[in-house]
Amino acid sequence: MNGKIVASKTTEDTFRPELLNPFVHHLELGTTYEKIKTALFTILLLPIRVIIICLLLIAGWLIAIVGLCGLPEENLREKPITGWRRKLTGLVCFLGKSTYTAGGLHMVVKGRQATRSEAPILVTAPHSTFFDGGIIYVTGFPSIIVRRESGANPYIGKLINFTQPVYVWRDDPDSRQNTIKEIINRATSSLDWPQILIFPEGTCTNRSCLITFKPGAFYPGVPIQPVCIRYPNKLDTVTWTWEGPSALKLLWLTLTQVYSYCEIEFLPVYTPNEAEKRDPKLFANNVRNVMAKALGIPVLDYTYDDCRLMTRAKEMNLPNATTLVEVQKLRHRLGLDQSNVEENLIESSISCKYSMVTILQFADYLNIALNDPLLHQLFQYYDTNSSGVIDFREYLLGVLATSKNRNVLDSIKIACKVYDSSGVGRLSPEDFAKILNHTLAIRVDEAMNVFQQIDKTGLNYVTFEKFQSYAEKKAEFASLFSLSKEKKVKSKNGDICPEYDKKTE
């Protein structure tokens, strides 16, 4: 099933039989009929739909230009638009909904949308696709949270600016705090601002669960209206997750369907109690529970950072990459992330002496009581075939390579210690192949080739220092010695991530 990872379970322990991975979506045209239909509609239907959609988008863009004409940007942030400009938003909404209809996506609305006086903020979930943007037209053009760069775009930026969005300024170190202040000011203002629409998950999922809600929408402590989105289609051509089809492929497959459905349900307004007003996270969690019940799906304490961890682990080809988020959460509950037990173990070469360990040895190495159920659950994630033993090296590499924001070169250095069967830093061809395979996702045969290029003297071993010296001279390893794009953005703008911005707009 999409987004589910099978985990083994013993008769003694009550572990979950399945771990939901909300950041994965698999999409294939499974039947010959689907493939033939898609091919025919690509030729016959797709061009017509694209032309109509483009015309409608241009019309909406022109209306937005008219609505913004003569209106300084400062005014958009200081007070709501009124008069004839406000009336134009209704026309933009009509054109926006017509765009979706032209693409074959029919939006079905359930429940009643509350007014701004009843609920200044609309909280929408699950967020699973760029098609979710259609809710803006259904809800009457509410204000959204958006990057300032998007508003500067000469095309889509006009439509975005016409919603009077709350901007996130990436070059402002206080961006998050200022965004929260602006949300509070708008939600509690006596002026007739549009409602604010927020996707509190902060990233796209596959709708298998509701992940952690960010508290931004809940800081004002005002009544909010939960809005649920469903896509009850036989073939899911809309879900856009971290691991799955590209946006272009999803757009193509959706536009070549006869029709698709998007169901938008307005739930009753949720009014916070005094405890929730004081604690935005409590408020967020309680609203999430209400929405999960209405959707009939579980809640899972995943965040966008967990998404990045999963992706990094998969890109590195780390052992048990798909369960490392759960593993790190268990380590936190066991206090292992503070005790540095694992780091001390690799310095003492325990990992290379006892690669295969039992639950008794596992408990001894981590200095945790054998009867602790969390320890057994941690062990179970690596004992995938219920053999009673795990490769302790895989555990150490996985948890250490994905903690403390280590870069890939640091992870390789750790892997060299973990897989050093000699115990003195001399890496055999087999050790070296495992290291490159589980940190750079390099195939074993390619790793062996790199080993031979480093070990030109025929010593039959290499060291981390020799690999580093070799890699510094090779273009294919240049990324190991420079900051990644993500890290550059983080160092400049706090922890605003470019992928986050791309996925949530």
TrEMBL record:
Keywords: Acyltransferase, Calcium, Lipid biosynthesis, Lipid metabolism, Membrane, Phospholipid biosynthesis, Phospholipid metabolism, Transferase, Transmembrane, Transmembrane helix
Cited InterPro entries: EF-hand-dom_pair, EF_Hand_1_Ca_BS, EF_hand_dom, LPCAT1-like, Plipid/glycerol_acylTrfase
Subcellular location(s) of the protein: Membrane
UniProt cross-references to Pfam families, sorted A to Z: Acyltransferase
GO cellular component terms attached to this protein's record: endoplasmic reticulum; membrane
Primary location group: membrane
Transmembrane segment boundaries: 43-68
GO BP annotations, alphabetical order: phospholipid biosynthetic process
GO MF: calcium ion binding; lysophosphatidic acid acyltransferase activity; O-acyltransferase activity
Alphabetized Gene3D superfamilies for the sequence: EF-hand
Keyword Ribonucleoprotein: no
CDD domains per record: LPLAT_LPCAT1-like
Associated pathway: Phospholipid metabolism; Lipid metabolism; phospholipid metabolism
Family: Belongs to the 1-acyl-sn-glycerol-3-phosphate acyltransferase family.
Record PANTHER family: LYSOPHOSPHATIDYLCHOLINE ACYLTRANSFERASE, PHOSPHOLIPID ACYLTRANSFERASE
UniProt name for this protein: EF-hand domain-containing protein
UniProt source species: Aquatica leii
